[in-house]
## 1
Amino acid sequence: MRQTPFIDKNFNIWPFPIRIGINDISHLKYQFKKTRVMHRRKYGKKTLLDLDYFKNRIGNPVPLSRIFLGKKYSGKDPLIRKASLSFSIKCLFIDFVIGFGIPQIREFIIRPDIFFLLKKLKYVIQRIFLSFRLLLKVKFYVFYTVNNFEKNKSAILRFLEEENAL
């Protein structure tokens, strides 16, 4: 499950500000009362779950202090390294300003209509400005992930524990 958190103007990060989406709900133990199915051209069906079930189970917003830029890695173990400024800018522009990493942006918001795109220019300018603020305020890391969830989870938890111990 991949989710996109919401970052507000004060750089607080909000977990799951909208419905949680899952590609396959057949393995879930809980039967959700309210769901919405979204049919995506490239990625197939995604079921959006109602947040009422998660009320008081999802954490509160927290100040954003680091951003991990995920990158697939063919090595044996995951790695976490400080991201270069150029790589951070590239990722922010592609994923944050344009929204290329978010399928909903590509499929439902970006349209081949020049007038529609001109209306959205305001949001692009705002995102560029916020990107520069993020670069000044937040630490960026590249998280080289392997094809093993447990190893990736252990690596990120170990990194965060070591960094907080300093």
## 2
Amino acid sequence: AMYEQADSTLEVISQLPFTAEYTYAWYTIGADWKLTLFQEGESDYYGSIASEVEALLKSGEFQEAHFRAMEIMYPGSMPDAAGLCELFAVSAAELGTLEAFQMAEDVSLNLLGVPVYQIDSDSPDYLASLEVYAAVAPEGTAELIIERTVVHE
């Protein structure tokens, strides 16, 4: 909480530890110390950045999406990080380059702590993207990807 004596306002912000979501309320303080709410709201950082990254991927701005995803605060706490990482894998497959998969790998390691080919998903689009990844990956990585996809057949 923060009190501003100059304009007799009180700002209260509530944020859970290790998350980027918060709620806030601003009050005016009357002469009798009565609080009157004049503004309140919340911020869903993860939701807004995930929407932004998804929109960038859908519009083909893969590098910008990668840049924004790598800026995510508290990456281990992001809800549905796996879904976002899957979307990166599918978008990388559309580009079909090793560089795109390396960027998807960066995001997966940052948000989930696992390589993009180890995401726990049976999504057909995701599994199909791994086939493309195996085709462009170096031999050692390709073998690991193929091993992963064989488990889900």
## 3
Amino acid sequence: MLHGSAAEVWLLDKQRQAHRRIYDAILGVRTLDVIDAAALLLHAFAANDESRLMHCARVLEGIDEKKVSSAIYHQLLWLPLVALVPGQRFFDANPSVSAALRHLQFSVALPMLLASITPVFLITEPSKSDAALETMITLPPSA
């Protein structure tokens, strides 16, 4: 019921301040698990905070890759969908932050993509597998 309500009653600066405070509260936990790290990224992104975004990218990159992929898949489905327009950055004010987040985005999206196309290659009949591969290769980029 309250989802999105802050945007109706709080100015953008106050919303961002709330996300910074939530980020700091999560960070205050002695041991972060993968879900905490995923929440950190969400709140750093919503706060549009350069230092928190960079810190969070480093935290997530330091976690075992399989755990990060699992966390992103379950907690941050939005990450692979951000800043997809050619030349668009995650964070305009700092290209380094954008590059770190783009790297994280790629490391999250690639396992998701591979998981979605793997069943195509598990087809037992070679002729069907070859046809599926040929179709994927010849699809126009917009398909």
## 4
Amino acid sequence: MSRLYLDLTELVDHPIRTGIQRVEGELLKWWPAEVPFRVVRFDAARGLVVLPEGTADCLRRVFTAAVGERDALVGALRELAGAPGNPVLEFADEDARLVVPEVFYDEGRISFYNHLTSRQMQRTYFLVFDLLPLTHPGYFLPMTSPELTCAYFRLIRTAVQIGFISSATRKAFHDRLRRSVEDALALPDGRGSVTGASSSDLAAGTVEDALALRDGRGSVTGAVSSDLAA
């Protein structure tokens, strides 16, 4: 049985309940129990670090806790992420599979993924939320470096395993980055799904449907299930 890891660096570092982090919170909430995984976090000095077993559960509790309980849970999350014994992910292991459901404009993290071998990239699954820095650059400048934005999109343009938060995002990816992705996973449009400028604000029902493994490869976990069973 292959081992699955989720790179939730932004979520661990900034566990807010809006935007992409909200989607990740729902991802954890509806993740099927029969597909075990571990959370990893990018460390500029070490690479991907495997966080303790309780990290995913702590993140789930952060997203469901009452306001008065949240600070203590975030503190517990910080302790888990900073534990001195957390090991580096041995991604050379053929049994490892990695899912990256985040957008990141961090030079070190982009470089890390760019330096993966072709075999490692074959076992890495990226989820694309939007192309807003390309389609609506005025929303991001001058806060986001154009160089890092372009570096991130060059990375996902060459990704072997790729999925999209919606069919609209998949179409924007094809139109802007000129790569054929018509066969790539796109999470279901319809109830609760949104497009355009608010495409990262995915409703819980859509995430539940996408993760329920009801249609095989038409889900985040379904897209890697055949590899995990290998």
